């Protein structure tokens, strides 16, 4: 049975178009999946505490309660074999809610380590991952895209390499544009899911 983790980083939470699309497709195409849904956009994670920052940057500091929230989020991630991240573009990049999740999940000596060449090496197992990206602009050509290369690099840092990006562009240009973006994303995502998880 597929264990799916469906995360929203939109201020609209589970009402975001990306989230509703992902939920509907999982229900139709992977009906026996055990799906865990989280709204980290509508109900933001707490800011990083000084204790957590110290724990990550002090030799021997990683034990203790400062990493408890981080641990919960990593365990939740480890438990899935299908990860779906639903996120808007905010100012060319990831929204603060997603950055906060990343700062909790990308933790040295837990989700990644550093090798003798000072490269970061992921400690989590790879898993099929979709990043559904919603933006006001059409995807190509109008502005820089820092989100895609950043998410590729971050997911690879923890060991997640099998990643597909699905873009819903022009989402602020009226109902017709939204419907077009949804149709295209629906087709791309259902083809990707149907071709095997
Ligand atoms: C603070 C903020 C910054 C945004 N920055 C961008 C941007 O840089 N590029 C873009 O195309 N859209 C930008 N948008 C528009 C959103 O990406 C767009 O409305 C998206 O569809 C929202 O998705 P959601 O409903 O899932 O939150 C921004 C929206 C907000 C609220």
UniProtKB/TrEMBL annotation:
FMN binds at residue 10. It holds the Pfam family Flavodoxin_2. Its EC number is 1.6.5.-, 1.7.1.17. It comes from the Bacteria. Belongs to the azoreductase type 1 family. Homodimer. This is FMN dependent NADH:quinone oxidoreductase. It comes from Pseudomonas aylmerensis.
């Amino acid at each position: 049975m597929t264990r799916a983790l469906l995360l929203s980083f939109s201020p609209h939470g589970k009402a975001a178009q990306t989230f509703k699309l992902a939920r509907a497709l999982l229900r139709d195409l992977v009906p026996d999946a055990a799906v865990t849904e989280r709204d980290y956009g509508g109900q933001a994670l707490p800011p990083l505490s000084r204790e957590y920052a110290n724990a990550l940057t002090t030799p021997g500091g990683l034990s203790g309660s400062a990493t408890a929230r981080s641990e919960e989020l990593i365990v939740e991630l480890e438990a899935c074999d299908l990860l779906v991240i639903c996120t808007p573009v905010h100012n060319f990049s990831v929204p603060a809610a997603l950055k906060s999740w990343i700062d909790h999940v990308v933790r040295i000596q837990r989700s990644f380590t550093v090798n003798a060449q000072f490269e970061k090496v992921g400690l989590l197992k790879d898993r099929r991952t979709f990043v559904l990206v919603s933006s006001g602009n059409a995807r190509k050509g109008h502005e820089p895209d820092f989100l895609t290369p950043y998410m590729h690099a971050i997911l690879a840092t923890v060991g997640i390499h099998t990643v597909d990006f699905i873009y819903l562009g022009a989402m602020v240009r009226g109902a017709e544009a939204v419907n077009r973006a949804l149709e295209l994303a629906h087709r791309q995502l259902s083809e990707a899911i149907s071709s095997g998880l």
